[in-house]
Structures are given as C-alpha cells and as structure tokens.
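Q: A reviewer asked whether we had any structural model of the full assembly, not just the individual parts. We don't, so I'm hoping you can provide one. Inputs are below.
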Amino acid sequence: MRAPHVLLFSTLSIGALAYVAGNPASPFAAARASAMQQPAAAQASAQVTPPREKDSVRFAIIGDTGTGTSSQYQVGERLTAARQMFPFEFVIMLGDNIYGSERPQDFVTKFEKPYKALLDAKVPFYAALGNHDDPTQRYYKPFNMNGERYYTFSKGSARFFVLDSNYMDQAQLKWLEDELLKANDRWKIAYFHHPLYSSGEKHGSEVDLRTQVEPLFIKYGVDVVFAGHEHFYERIKPQNGIYYFIEGGSAKLRKGDIRKGALTAAGFDTDFTFILAELGKDAMQFQALSRNGKPIDSGSLPLAEEPKKAAESKPPSR
Amino acid sequence: MVRALLILGLTVFSIGVAAQKPPVNVVAQQMVDFSKRIDAYMKVRDDATKGLPDVKETGDPAKISGREKALGQAIAKARATAKPGDVFGEEMSAHLKKVLADDWKSRSPADRKALFEELPKGVKLAINQSYPTTLPLVSVPAKLLARLPVLPEALEYRLIDRYFLLRDRDANLIVDVLSGVYPTRDR
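A: Here is a predicted structure for the entire assembly that you could use as a starting point for your response.
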C-alpha cells in the first residue's frame, strides 16, 4: 500500500513564496515577479504557489458552481487571478453546473459570465453531471463532454475518467472497466459528482456507489478521485491507497457541515473554495484556496508505483 | 391384488404427470414482456421524432432546449392516450415494487436517511409531462440499478417523492409512473 505521505504547507503563502524566491532559476520566477508587482486584484495570486515542474499537468477543480450568485463570480475572479501565478491549462467541473432552471440565459449567468475571463483565454472546461444537471448538458459544447454522460480524456501523462454518478448503470460500469483496462497513463484521475467518502452531516459517504466503482479504481490503479455534492472542501485520508477530495463549495456553501472524524485529513466549510492541482513526475501538488485567496490546505501526494491491491483495503468507518 | 395395485399406482402417477405444467420462470417472462413494451415505446419514439434534427454538440443552449422540447412534444402527441402501467405493465409493476421495497429494507438507517432527504417532496407527476426542470434528478442508487432491467440509453429510471419513473432522457419526458414506492417517512 502506498504510504499516505502528505507534505503539508498549511502556512503556505509565506513558506511557499520563500521557497520559490530562493530559487531564481525557477521558470516561473518571471510570472511570480509580475504577479507580485500588481497590488490589487493580482495580490490574490500572491498566495498561490507556482507549479514546481516544467512539464507537469496543471488544472483547476471547481464543484457545485452553477448558482449565478455573487459567490460564484467571486470564485471565478479568484480563479482567474490565481492563473497568473499558477498557469493551469484546463478546469474540471464536479457537477451541479447549472442549478435550477436551465434556460439559455441560465448558461450565460451561471457559467459563461462567471468564468468569462478564462473562457476568453481559451481555457477548456470539462464537466461532470450532478444531480441538478439535465443530462442534455452533455451537448453543450463549452462543457466538452462530446455528447456523452461519461467520457475520458487525456492531458500529458494523465488520463481523466469523468463519470455520471447520478446513474451508475451496468453499461457505464462496463465502459469504465474497459477504459481503465486500456489506460497506460502514468496518472489515472476519476471525477464525478457524488463522493464515495465524506464527513458531511447532510449527505455523507455514497456507500452504495462506492461498492460499485471503488473495486474498479483499486483494481486498475486510479490515483486520485475528485467529487462534489457536499458544499464544502474536504481531503479524505487515503482509502485503499487512493486519494479522495471533495470540492463542492465553489458557489454553494453549507457552513459547519463537516463532522471531522476518522475520514477527514483536512476540511473547510466556512467559505467558498477551489483547488489547483499539478500532476508531476512522481507526485501531485495540490492547493485549496478560499474565495478570498486564503490557502486552506495544500500538500504533495506521491504517485503509487504499483496498482493498488484490494487485499490491502481496510474497512472504512463509513 | 398386486397387479391391481400396480395398475392403480401407474394410473395415479400418469394423471399426476399430465397435470404438471412445464416449469416457468415468472420473472424472466415478465422481463421479456417488459422488454417488448420498451421496444414498442422506442418504435413510437423513433416514428414520432423522424424529421427532427439530430442532436449535436453546440455552444447555443437554445438549440439544446429547443430540441428537447420538440422531442417531448412529438412523443407526447404520439402517446396522447398513454396511461400509468402502459410500459411497466401490471405484473412488472408488482415486481418492481417488490424490488424497491427490498432495496429500501436492505439499506442502513443512514442510507435511508440520506436517500429520503434527497428525494423532492410534494411533487405531482403525470405521464407525458416534463420532469420539473427546477427539481434535482436524484441519483438512482447503483445497487438498485443493478437489480433493474437494462434500458436503452434513451430511457432511464428515476426516483422522485414516492414515484418511480421511466423518463425519456433527451426529451425530459415522463414515460411511465409507479406511485407509492417508497415510505412517506424516513423509516
């Protein structure tokens, strides 16, 4: 079993900047210097740690976004500012992309406007369906779902498996197994709406879904799983050698909903959040930030060398 | 005497054998019938939606919602007289209710609570009506799905309030309804 080795930088901004500042040869020094010279909005990016590796896969993670409220717009602005320091290539959306009515104008106010700067910069978004999403969203080109409820795409050394956790039928499970079997990528990342593990009071772990998909994740060596649904940020202690994150607080917030327990490695439920991730040669760097740009969690998760074995599983507390 | 008893015994055995019906897998038969009704729906759907433009990825959500609406209207018109049970069928409805009841019983209190809280309440639904777009599409538990007959990609099962639905995915149309499938309270 992979050692649940996590390097935490909870006092990230000062420490991380000091680390990078001491490395003038960093390819990101210019971007960092530029960001540090801009006092107002760009100061948001000052608390963001730049990528560590030159050819890494960098992306942002947002979930439960489609409210059209000011909080969604604020996170959108923060995301744009963060990109100055951390030039992510694409964004993954963990479902509930459009809450409530799905009229054409809702796609504008609940997606296109909040992320306009990123869309204008040609940053692609890859969406998963949530329980508030009409499955016809899969035909909406800016979500890059290729007309499918579940799909896969690759970026550099990583392959992403995007699932429809609202409706995990046998056809989807078979597709998932076939695709995992074919994948020889260094990183295997799965994401979907409902969390297999959660310390949320309101919803909690999706045990039923877990019994169906987790054995495949273990068997075929999925490394990291992202989910939303719970309106907060949580990093779960590694389960069966797999890293689990919840990011369902990018526009909705359920304050005080986390019941920190055996599953919780870190949690944050007092403000809106998003995650930045970097898949490197041997580890994934991650940093979770609040709407105000405050770092709330970060660390380095080593890549497993061998596929996880089901026999190493420990029964979860829930 | 022995011969008479033997003849009597053979006669009783023969009558018994003749009275026996060939074994029938009732559930399998129900599945076959259900599958035929699904095929019939798909034929009506295909016929009704001929001439509508194929769905393609587009950056214009108006085109997506316009097609969904047109699809729903065309199917509803072609099935204007449809009533509850037309697709599920009487025997399959009973079977599905049992599967749903067994599924509910098999869940832990925490699972029941979570599912119950997710289900929108106070909803009135009817066949040929659009699924209310402001309500969430509650996830159908994966283990339950594994016990239900497989559907074509165009169709899906859904749970809402105390209803179990057959929903046309791209038309957002309620195709058939089973009511009273889950408890009214989290029990």
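A: Points you may want to mention in the reply: The interface with chain A takes residues 55-62, 64-65, 68, 108, 110-111, 114, 117-118, 133-134, 136-146, 150-151, 153, 156, 169-170, 172 of chain B (CB under 8 Å). Chain B has one domain: 26-178.
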